[in-house]
Design a protein that fits this description.
Layout: E1 2-6, H1 16-30, E2 34-40, E3 51-54, E4 56-57, E5 67-68, H2 75-82, E6 86-89, H3 94-106, E7 110-113, H4 129-144, E8 149-152, H5 155-162, E9 170-172, H6 179-183, H7 189-194, E10 201-208, H8 215-228, E11 234-241, H9 245-254, E12 261-263, H10 269-278, E13 281-284, H11 293-300, E14 305-308, H12 313-316, E15 324-326, H13 330-342, H14 344-360, H15 363-381
Parallel strand pairs: 1-2, 1-6, 2-3, 6-7, 7-8, 8-9, 10-11, 10-13, 11-12, 13-14, 14-15
Antiparallel strand pairs: 4-5
Length: 385
């Protein structure tokens, strides 16, 4: 099968969407499929086979992201040579629109993965938020109804977007994780690399430093944990990069957490695996996730999460079985952290169950399901949409 992936973000940019694309593409190629990726060009990004880059510009609001200019004199010739069977888009915007146009022109099916609750990211748009939120919902619903199949990472998100007026069939398919990679991290690497004492409890966050990740809430929660455990040394390790780093560094000063918060910046996957393995708890306060892939990665390493029970996180974590879910409440969130730090029997139970769950979400298992879904869409497209 020849598959075209159109995305508004790709390596070297780091995000859950990029990791999803990479993990599925790698496994699909192992199965014998040809996967071609159409993405923005980033400064310093190497030339790669199967990756076609578009000239791009850097937006003022986010220096580590680029926006593709969706025009290329070579595109039509390239698509003709590739002879794609279907196009799979991972954004409804610039490259997603281009992918939809190419699919329609070629008469092949269009699949779209609804990775992001776009209406919850309107703080990046310089207009009145209620108007922006309505516009985004209306726009994405229209885009979804142009596709032959919608994929959502969780059932929670599938139910949410059905209320947007989407009539296209929806399939739930989580992104898989490299279970063996995250299972086999070095438990000593994190402390040795950053000089963290053996008597310090390490709370870990992996992801992006963006407003939507609710990291100011997480830092306030850490301050409360410090007050509840005055004799315990704590370190919050943020393995991430993003536009909010300076604001969060200032907040750490305001909250008197300078000695308790460590910003590592983005790290390669192998080192991220070491961080999971060397931490005591995974902490996740985002309320905008469609899946929260990092939750599964943490579970694979035997690291139980304390998370806000919102949206896609509800499908990933079963409270008091493989992690703890709480409301968006500082007192409850900090108390859950304290409970796991002081109750080794509970933590051991959660660790065992977390590993079992993560193993079910391996990349190979999820890619097999995606391949079968593609075949189903191709069969259905014979009748025409």
């Amino acid at each position: 099968m020849n598959i075209g992936i159109f995305t508004d973000s790709y390596r070297p940019y780091i995000s859950g969407v990029v990791r999803s694309i990479d993990s599925f593409a790698s496994e699909l190629r192992k199965m014998g499929h040809n996967v071609y990726i159409f993405a923005p060009k980033y400064k310093g990004a190497p030339d790669e086979p199967y990756v076609y880059r578009f000239h791009s510009v850097r937006p003022l609001a986010n220096n580590d992201f680029t926006l593709a200019i969706p025009f290329s004199s070579k595109l039509r010739t390239t698509l003709s040579k590739l002879n794609l069977d279907l196009i799979h888009t991972h954004s409804p915007f610039i490259m997603g629109r281009l992918g939809a146009h190419c699919a329609r022109r070629a008469g092949i099916p269009l699949v779209f993965t609804y990775h992001t609750l776009y209406d919850q990211y309107v703080h990046y748009v310089p207009v009145v938020e209620p108007v922006a939120r309505w516009a985004v919902v209306h726009y994405t619903a229209n885009y979804c109804n142009r596709a032959d199949r919608i994929i959502t990472p969780t059932t929670v998100v599938a139910k949410m977007i059905k209320n947007y007026g989407i009539s296209t069939p929806i399939s739930v398919l989580p992104t898989g994780i490299d279970y063996q990679l995250f299972k086999s991290g070095d438990p000593n690497w994190l402390r040795e690399r950053y000089g963290i004492g053996q008597n310090e409890k390490v709370l870990l966050y992996v992801g992006r430093l963006g407003q939507e990740k609710n990291l100011d809430f997480l830092m306030h929660a850490v301050r409360l944990v410090k007050k509840k455990l005055p004799d315990q040394k704590l370190r919050l390790v943020l393995v991430a990069g993003g536009p909010e780093r300076e604001n969060l560094e200032r907040l750490a000063v305001e909250l008197e957490l300078c000695d308790n918060v460590l910003f590592t910046g983005p790290l390669p996957p192998k080192e991220v695996a070491h961080c999971y393995k060397g931490a005591d708890l995974f902490t996740f306060a985002s309320c905008t996730e469609t899946q929260g892939l990092v939750l599964l990665e943490a579970m694979a390493a035997g690291l139980p999460p304390v998370a806000v029970g919102a949206n896609g996180v509800l499908d990933m974590v079963e409270s008091y079985t493989d992690g703890i879910l709480v409301d968006l409440d500082l007192e409850k969130f900090s108390s859950a952290i304290v409970e796991l730090l002081t109750n080794p029997e509970l933590k051991d139970k959660l660790v065992q169950n977390a590993r079992l769950k993560a193993e079910r979400y391996s990349t190979s298992n999820m890619a097999k399901k995606l391949s079968a879904l593609y075949e189903e869409v191709l069969r259905e497209s014979g009748a025409g949409k």
